[in-house]
Amino acid sequence: MRDGYFGGEPNAIAQTKDGYIWLGSRDGLFRFDGVRFVRWSTQSGEQLPSSQIWTLLGARDGSLWIGTDAGLAHLVNNRLILYQKNEGWSVANIFEDRDGKIWFARVRPDDKTHPLCQVHDAGVDCYGSKDGVDVFGAGAIAQDPSGDLWVGGNTTYVRWRPGVSKVYRPQALQSNEGNGGVRGLLPAADGSLWVGMALAVRGAGLQHMVDGTSKPFVAPNLNGETLEVQALYIDRQDSLWVGTTGGLYRIRGTEVDHYESANGLSGDWVKKIFEDREGNVWVATSRGIDMFRDLRVKSFSKREGLIEGEVESVSASRDGNVWIGTGRLQVLGPRGLSLFGPGKRLPGNLVTSLFTDHAGRLWAGMINKLFVYERESFREITKQDGSALGMMMGIAEDSEHNIWVESAGPPGTLLRIQDLKVRQQFPAPAMPLARKIVADPQGGIWLGLVTGDLARYRDGQVNIFTFGNHPNSRVLAITAASDGSILGGTAFGVVGWKDGKQQILTVQNGLPCNAVNALISDDAGNLWLYAQCGLIEIPKQQMQLWWEHPKSRLSLRVFDTLDGVEPGWAPFNTSAKTPDGRLWFSNSSVVQMIDPAHLPENTLPPPVDISALVADRRAYPLESAIRLAPQTRDLEIDYTALSYVAPQKVLFRYMLEGHDAGWQEPGTRRQAFYNDLPPRKYRFRVTACNNDGVWNEAGASVDFSILPAYYQTAWFRAFCVAAFLLLLWVLYQFRLRQIQHQFNIGLEAQVHERTRIARDFHDTYLQTIQGSKLVADSALKQSPDPARMRLALEQLSVWLARATEEGRATLSSLRTSATERNDLAAAFQRAIEESRMESSMEASFSVVGEISEMHPIVRDEVYRIGYEAIRNARVHSQATHLQVELTYAEDLTMRVRDNGVGIDPAIVGEGREEHFGLQGMRERARRIMAKFTVDTSAASGTEITLVVPGGIIYGRTNSGGGKWPAIEALLKRLGLTSKSTDS
User: Fold this and answer.
1) How confident is the model over 232-247, as pLDDT tens digits?
2) Contacts of 711 (CB under 8 A, 6+ apart)
3) pLDDT in tens, 827-858
4) How far apart are CA 542 and CA 523, in angstroms?
5) Among the listed residues 562, 612, 615, 560, the one whose alpha carbon sits nearest the alpha carbon of residue 36
6) Would you report the helix, strand and coil content of the chain in percent, each value rounded to 5?
7) Edge-to-edge, what's the strand order for the sheet holding 10-15?
8) 608-712 has the same fold as 184-294
9) In angstroms, rounded to a whole number, what is the distance separating the alpha carbons of residues 914 and 880?
10) DSSP state letter for 571
11) Torsion angle of alpha carbons 611, 617, 623, 628, nearest 10°?
12) Once rounded to an integer, what is the mean pLDDT over residues 348-356?
């Protein structure tokens, strides 16, 4: 209560099957996992009949029964069932018999009937005096080996089974009408019965009933009649625990231990005693909760009988006695601790060294004095010259039974004693200054030096083995280990020598600390280090491993304050071993003992429980499937392991399946934290080990899932994938059509080019060839006339030369312009002149407007159309006059007019078979987006008009800096380019 854990006095303790300890107090119900007390509550807000709890029972089915001052409650799977709520009954005790039936004792001031009740599925059945349960104020319930129930009340206690009962009426209780009476009934395995009564009257108190006869229990320092008993309990070691208004008693045979507030108990009024599954004994007092457990390391201090709280040395004799040196000499034997020596005090002021030799004699070194005890008397050992011996730092006996004593001086001196006389002295610095001595099994002695080094003295020769420069790091303890090695404890680790090899054992090899105050081997050959951080056990096999591999990390066991170790430093001999194998250590204030062969082992794996899951500061119930909200960021999972021997030593491992690649090892931490987990299903698993490293591999687990946001769902991902695939398909189709379009454009361009070449051949080369043929035909018709034949051949030569030039020009036109200059007027002028040379038709040519720069390709097309019109007029029109007009205005207009016979309308519309003149002109006009018209009649001749849009033919610079924007767009549509006039 002083620590703030409880708002009211604790009255009851129980443990449920899941491992939790439950505490009932005047302020409610608490659950304890060894580290945290948690006030009980349910998610549904269920309430106990009352917050004042008198008794608790952890049933074998795992449920918890709760007795309050307003009724009975049953907690099953965190659901509460109420019995007799607010009917005026107070539940004093709850009991489960060997058949699993639940019984409870109830009290109501105005009703003394039916104090004993049984719970069953249909409800509650209660029994009273008419049924043989002749008690009132019932509180104690028990069951003996025969199956009978024992029920205790204020004035009587009853042995009962349905239909059979026997009432006991202690004389001391007959005048009791208050709240006292029988508070404890405890059948023992031998058939006897312990009875505890809470009345300070003669004949009451603690009684033992054997064969139907009760007598007060009396033991040394204990009179059971004087006890006001509140609780009784027999533990698994058959110790009887008695809770009284004056503290707690533990009785084993005739040995009695008494605990009260003066020596550490939380309160003197003991209300409840309980033993958990690990053998720990829990006690509820008026002021708090205490827990008793067996410590592996026992301490002997002034409380156990030491005269002084300053322990400097310890030694063990062959008869099992333990000698303890303080300012006085004490011996710990079968009868406990007692003073020893003449007048109960040796002449001296501090026992610094103790040693027992081969003959069983005790050597006791003090400041400037040395004594040996034999024949029940002490004899002082002195130097021959009578000088002071100095402070005795260490005593040893070699294989020749010489006694060696290290004296601190000044000056420091090593003494050899034989036949109880000092035979030799080895002063420093001739002999290295030492603090500890041990016999060498092979002869001579080993010295632990003040420098932290080791030295061996044998046959008059000293060998020093150094371990580096470590100032102020003297050897505090030295021992000859069972494997023949010599080991010394220092502030920088354990120095060792074996077969010429020397090594240092430190934290690098797994020690929890370097400072070692004492060391000794047990009967199994294991090495024990009494270090500044605790007591360390190193198995024999691990020491062998260290000798073979000096840098290896050893597997060892550490006992600390939780095991009873009280680390400290004693400057003199600090360890001993009794014949029964127990090890003893002194630490300047107490003597500590450990029994390596009989260490209590906690073999129970701890139950593991996941107590809470908190996501973004919201706690989720663990009973149902847990579904966390989308975008959960911070997740905390609380877990625990229910081991109460040493909860601080419980270790954990956990893994989040679906996230962690392996087990995480948080040590003793009881929370796991995760951040920004992706949405999916998870399973959290946790395992734990107890203080002895026994793991519960099954552990506990919890399944949960984090819901996805809409953009994290499978359908959204599928939609995105489908959209992406659709986009790829659209891009693919677009690219496919683009490639197909480019191919079509290229193909169309090839067709256009072939058509253009055909037109060019028709308009030039073929017509010239045709003219040549006409000349040849004419010459053949008039072959007898040589002059005319010659003229025909000359004309044929001219036509063939022209055909050659036109063929070359046609081929050249694939690369160059049909006109070398950007001047249509000059080109048409030459064409008209050629017509005059070949016929008698008169021709005229006129240009209207200012000549403008023209696109080469469009200009060539205009020229080809005009040239074809001029040639057709010369060849076919039979005209006498030809007029050609070129007008430069907004658009370019070209007119070719003759006064010939005209053109057959059928030929104008459909063209002449195998002649492509008009068809070619129309095709050329369409290519350059020009308007082409033919007006003809037999009376007026033929007029051909071509109108080319100015945006197509004229060189006008656009906003991007390019010329002929319209024709450039046209060429691009056709898949062509025009980078220069050579295009």
Assistant:
1) 999 999 999 999 999 9
2) none
3) 888 878 877 766 778 888 899 988 888 888 78
4) 16
5) 612
6) 20, 40, 40
7) 10-15, 21-25, 28-32, 37-39
8) no
9) 27
10) S
11) -130
12) 85
Residue 212, C-beta contacts closer than 8 angstroms, at least 6 positions apart: none
Query: Homologous superfamily of 184-294 in CATH?
Result: YVTN repeat-like/Quinoprotein amine dehydrogenase (2.130.10.10)
- Helix, strand, or coil here: 90? strand
- Which band of pLDDT confidence, cut at 50, 70 and 90, is reported for residue 791? confident
CATH of the domain spanning 819-983: 3.30.565.10
Beta bridge partners of 855: none
Question: How many residues in total does the chain contain?
Answer: 983
Higher pLDDT residue, 308 or 935?
935
The model's confidence at residue 77, banded by pLDDT at 50, 70 and 90, is confident
163: tokens are 């239909």
Indicate the class that CATH gives domain 1-88. mainly beta
615/310 Cα distance (integer angstroms): 56
**Which of residues 748 and 341 earns the better pLDDT score?**
748
- The 10s digit of each residue's pLDDT in 568-622 is 776 677 899 999 999 999 988 899 999 999 998 899 999 999 999 999 999 998 8
Rounded Cα gap, residues 83 and 126, in angstroms:
12
Q: Which amino acid is at 373?
A: Y
Q: For residues 197 and 159, is the Cβ–Cβ distance under 8 A?
A: no
792 three-class SS: helix
Q: Domain boundaries in the chain?
A: 1-88, 184-294, 300-598, 608-712, 819-983
Q: Helix 824-838 vs helix 856-876: angle between axes, to the nearest 10 degrees?
A: 20
**b/e map of 39-51 (b: 16 or more CB within 10 Å)?**
ebeeeeeeebbbb
Residue 305 CB coordination number (10 Å): 14
CA distance 7 to 625: 36
> Residue 719 has which token pair?
């939609």
Instruction: Extract the tokens encoding 375.
Output: 């024949």
- The average pLDDT across 157-162 equals 92
If 0-12 CB within 10 Å is exposed, 13-18 middle and 19+ buried, where does residue 69 land?
Answer: middle
Tokens of 302: 């002034």
Q: Please state, for a pLDDT cut of 90, what percent of the chain lies above it.
A: 52
* Beta strands 842-848; 671-675: pairing state: unpaired
CA 884 to chain CA mean position, Å = 99
Pairwise CA distance, residues 563 & 265, whole Å: 19
Superfamily (CATH H level) for 608-712: Immunoglobulins (2.60.40.10)
Q: What is the pLDDT of residue 784?
A: 67
- Quote the pLDDT of residue 978: 46
Sign of the alpha-carbon dihedral angle for 736, 738, 741, 747: negative
Q: How many CB atoms lie within 10 A of CB 601?
A: 11
**Residues in a beta bridge with 944:** 896, 934
Across the chain, what does the average pLDDT equal? Answer: 86
Q: Are 371 and 358 in contact (CB under 8 A)?
A: no
Each residue of 811-823: b (16+ CB within 10 Å) or e?
A: eebeeebbbeebe
The 10s digit of each residue's pLDDT in 726-751 is: 999 999 999 888 888 887 776 676 66
Q: Give the CB-side neighbour count of residue 559, counting CA atoms within 13 A.
A: 24
Over residues 492-537, the pLDDT tens digits come to: 999 999 999 999 999 999 999 999 999 999 999 999 999 999 999 9
| The token pair that represents 716 in the structure block | 């959204």
Angle at alpha carbon of residue 400, lines to 399 and 403, rounded to 5°: 90
Give, as one character, the DSSP assignment of residue 356.
E
pLDDT at 959 over 60: no
Residue 785 CB burial class (10 angstroms; 0-12, 13-18, ≥19)? exposed
Per-residue pLDDT at 428: 86
Q: Among 141, 159, 252, which residue's Cα sits nearest to residue 212?
A: 159
The architecture CATH gives domain 300-598: 7 Propeller (2.130)
State the pLDDT at residue 341.
62
**Two structure tokens written together for 560:** 């600390």
